[in-house]
TrEMBL record:
Name by which UniProt lists this protein: 4Fe-4S dicluster domain-containing protein
Domain 4Fe-4S ferredoxin-type as annotated: residue spans: 13-42
Record field: transmembrane: none
Entry-linked InterPro entries: 4Fe4S_Fe-S-bd (IPR017896), 4Fe4S_Fe_S_CS (IPR017900), Pyruvate:ferred/Flavod_OxRd (IPR050722)
GO-annotated molecular function: iron-sulfur cluster binding; metal ion binding
GO biological process: response to oxidative stress
Domain of life of the source: Bacteria
Keyword terms of this UniProt record: Iron, Iron-sulfur, Metal-binding
């Protein structure tokens, strides 16, 4: 997705689930506030069959791990929005209630 923040124009944002670490609890889907404007039943993150998607999501995750991290010095300010972009990221066991 294109980042809408003025100080980050031209940047992209991606959220990638670690497919082998997901417990399938559905909590992330329940709390996700982003919805499709045409179909509010569809959110930015949706549950799907693990078996049908595991190979593709492993490839996506491997690609995600190769993306460069943001240098905090490039951020205009550190706030609730930008703090989500700085290492350590929200990840791995214990990162969510699931």
């Amino acid at each position: 997705l294109d980042v809408k923040a003025r100080d980050m124009r031209g940047q992209k944002y991606v959220l990638q689930v670690a497919p082998e670490d997901c417990t399938g609890c559905n909590l992330c889907v329940e709390v996700c506030p982003a919805k499709d404007r045409q179909n509010p039943e569809i959110k930015a993150i949706n549950m799907a069959s693990r078996l049908d998607n595991l190979t593709a999501e492993k490839d996506n995750y491997d690609f995600f791990l190769q993306l460069p991290e943001i240098d905090p010095a490039q951020l205009e300010r550190i706030d609730i929005r930008t703090s989500q972009l700085i290492t350590p990221l929200f990840e791995y066991s214990g990162a969510c209630s699931g």
